[in-house]
Amino acid sequence: xxxxxxxxxxxxxxxxxxxxxxxxxxxxxxxxxxxxxxxxxxxxxxxxxxxxxxxxxxxxxxxxxxxxxxxxxxxxxxxxxxxxxxxxxxxxxxxxxxxxxxxxxxxxxxxxxxxxxxxxxxxxxxxxxxxxxxxxxxxxxxxxxxxxxxxxxxxxxxxxxxxxxxxxxxxxxxxxxxxxxxxxxxxxxxxxxxxxxxxxxxxxxxxxxxxxxxxxxxxxxxxxxxxxxxxxxxxxxxxxxxxxxxxxxxxxxxxxxxxxxxxxxxxxxxxxxxxxxxxxxxxxxxxxxxxxxxxxxxxxxxxxxxxxxxxxxxxxxxxxxxxxxxxxxxxxxxxxxxxxxxxxxxxxxxxxxxxxxxxxxxxxxxxxxxxxxxxxxxxxxxxxxxxxxxxxxxxxxxxxxxxxxxxxxxxxxxxxxxxxxxxxxxxxxxxxxxxxxxxxxxxxxxxxxxxxxxxxxxxxxxxxxxxxxxxxxxxxxxxxxxxxxxxxxxxxxxxxxxxxxxxxxxxxxxxxxxxxxxxxxxxxxxxxxxxxxxxxxxxxxxxxxxxxxxxxxxxxxxxxxxxxxxxxxxxxxxxxxxxxxxxxxxxxxxxxxxx
Length: 595
Hints:
9-stranded antiparallel beta sheet, single chain, Lipocalin, elongated, 3 domains
């Protein structure tokens, strides 16, 4: 789903399809509710002045909303003592979805509607005004209200439902009763991430806007809203005594088919990563994101409305007009005060990098079509390079030593028609090399960075590289979570949530997890004390990040490379790491079919 381009649909299409399916599939009859009447007493600025219910039978109810009465179909499901009741307002695509604790009659009411208009063309720094708007009729919006069900015979509960950070950092495996299988991670109090396991087109981490609501220590409500993807909603009741879930899925799929159904799922806790708020802060005293104002406000990252996609010609024009190569300052969102020291290790050295282009041959790997880069390093920041028999070309470069005798350096290939960047990770202790070649344009985008890695050996002095052994792709980091401090003002959480993808979360002022996004990536093991981690922020700003992480010193260093509307940039980055814990998830990616 990560790369699916969803049709925004039209308001007319949405309403037509919703109106003809007024009831969710999979309802479990709540016989004890038949004949029940109650007023929903909701709190907050945007609560309706009147919301009254009379349950007629297992299928129908009457709801009075602000003086207007509707006869509606409904569906419901119970998980322990907690009920989920879902219905639409007849003749509209609006709906109400009540999560009710039948022990106390405290409840959370989700009011939903379709469609939003969003700005296009601004930027994260607030320096560029939006140039327009776009409509997304298929995307469900929501506002949740806390309150209670007044049956006329009960008092207001002592405790209502609240927002919470109590399950922040948790990872879950979900096995739905219909066969759907996924992993979720809660690195934020306003977002969650997921990896679809049962879908052959899944496997790439995706980010959804989310709500986390505490009923009590046993029961929670978790929602995810597929913003920037399908636009669907998922409201889930979680029972952590029995490790079960029940909920509702509502919205449009990849072919614009409407899905409105209740479900159940078995849960497995895959791990709990530390979250870093004050130990006495439980997320129940203030909104999860203070900047969100107005009805329906929620965190929603829409990266392609900020970094508006470009054609190849536009990207190349911007790259030609302005370039920032290892310059300080400027538009570098991951600029670091905590980068590794820049080293002069290479100064004065002449060497060759010989890559194994025949990827699938037996050792010794190299064949007749190997790529060789020759280097003559002039100084701490200037090198010359060439291909065999070619002309020497001078470039600026920057080098780090993230682990003893491993040198990571990067430079442009000036004059290349695709604005190619080359990053080399060379181990001078054993002669092994990883080369990552990146350029403007990828398999699915004309302007985002495309990159690939090749393995090879170093030819320098009397170093004799191994005959067969090479650096290699690895899953050693999969399931791990780290906090990264780039500077006094920029820090984030990484969750390495699949062998091919990860997520990053920006800390809020109270150290809770906030804005989150995700992208494809790869992990390469250089040595036990050095891992190369490369990602491209696809369907986002299109930039490449590449670092080498040393888990022994909990520090990384590397580079950011990309092109945007302000030009091409190649910058350094680096951060101090803090291990937050891990998730036991590799077993879900290691399943093998029967032979």
